[in-house]
Each structure stands twice: as structure tokens, then as C-alpha cells.
Amino acid sequence: MTALDAIDRNILRVLRLDARKSNAGIAEEVGLSPSACLRRIRLMEQAGVIRGYTVLLDTASSDAMAVIINISLERQTEDYLDRFEAAVREHPEIRECYLMTGGSDYLLRVEVASSVGFERIHKEILSTLPGVARIHSSFSIRDVLASRKVGRT
Q1: Cα(137)–Cα(127) distance, rounded to whole angstroms?
Q2: What pLDDT does 151 receive?
Q3: What is the rounded distance in angstroms from the CA atom of residue 36 to the CA atom of residue 40?
């Protein structure tokens, strides 16, 4: 796929706000025919620009708490980073993982139902990840902004 143009970026903006919006609705909003819009979406999916679609849960009603975890590695060599990232990908409990600048090497997000659930993840997963020197965890109190969607559907 060639570089994204303004129409592709507009399609992505619409999908970020509402990935369930119909193709016809997206096409109308970005000024394309439905077939041209769908073709562009499929091309972005095939190229990996769009990696998937997901559901954002209201943690208040799903009995889940988000835990934000900062991980510092013993070393920041390519081998340490690669081994850590490969291990993280093996654990579906880890919802997100970002390589960071600043005070820690990685930021992870997990969702748990209780502190007991987090204790299991900490003991069985986080503390066994290769190269980990330090783990710092923070429990969220509530979601303030989990997406750019305003309001509820």
C-alpha cells in the first residue's frame, strides 16, 4: 500500500470514533461511494494499517479494573528487548504493551476483577518475564477517557 492520503486518514478518524459505523455511513462522511470506501478499508486492513477491531468495556459495569504497569529491564539491549516482547505476546492477560522513553522501559495494561486476580498475574506472569528488574503497578480508580468517542451508543 502506498502512503495514506487525506481520505484514508479521514476514514481512519471515522473508524476510531465508531468502528461499528456502516460502510455506507463512513462513505457518506468522507465523500466516497460505498464501494470505493470499502476498497480503501480492505486495502488498509491487508496492509496492516488497520490491525483489527475491538470493544471497549465500561469497567464499572464489567467488574474489571485496569492496572497500569511500568516495567524496567535489567538491560536495554536488543536481545533483552526482543526476549521481553516475545514473552509478553504469549500472555493474553496483558492487553497492551508499549516500549517507552523516560523512567521505565515498558508500560503494560492488564484488566483484573480483584487484587487477588492481579496477585496471580504478578506472581505467575509479570515476575517471570525475562530481564525484568523492577515492576511498578497502579490500579485505576475509573476510566476518564478510554476512547475518543463522546457519549454512549
Answers
A1: 12
A2: 46
A3: 6
